[in-house]
Amino acid sequence: GGATVYNSWWDKDEGPIGGLKSPPKMNQWMWPASLVIQFIGLTWAMYIGWNYAIIYAISMLFFWLYSTPLARWKGKPIRSIIAIGVSTGNNSFFLGFLAAGGYPITFTEDLIALGVALIILSLYPVSQIYQTEEDGKRGDETFAIKYGLAGIKWFFAILFLVGGFILSAMLFQTAHTLGLIFGGVILTAYLLISFFVWKLKGREEEYETVMRLKFFASFSFVLFIVGTLGWQALAL
Fold this sequence. Notes:
The protein is mostly helical. The protein has helices at residues 2-11, 30-48, 50-67, 77-99, 107-123, 132-137, 143-174, 176-197, 207-235.
């Protein structure tokens, strides 16, 4: 939450952004509040463990690099991909893994984190389609501005599929049946999302469709996790 507000403070968007069709106007108190929230999270992370706190702090750093005018990685296509991939992709998995009691982080977890990052990144530039005018006014050369609609579609087509394959393969190594089921869920989600992504024209009225696509992708993961937990409970 703090990172989102921090980014919104510097962007000051008036048009559609990820999750909000009409974002609220930023007030002066929101910038320090965003930092307070992030540092509260960091303090809490320290109680969980030093490795957890370090990963959390790295995520904070990348969020700042992404948003602040002093670095503004959001306005540089490749750097923005790195920032989101590390903070929202890799580190989200690592934090969840450690919070669940997993340790140490091995090469296997690194591969899983990569798969998670690729899937998250695959849809990251899609919402930028509807921000190109405002981003351009700020001087940001976002992924959507540099590579256009065609680049966004191919970016999704490749990254989602590769990320899904990595996750399915890693899960298959430890639980064959679950790996196959997950592969089926990923493939189904990929085909359904692809159908809508390739139809996008970049019109503002498509915004709600894009948000539904992101929700569907997230919900597919949640559904699989809930199903897996239920499977394990029945097995016990």
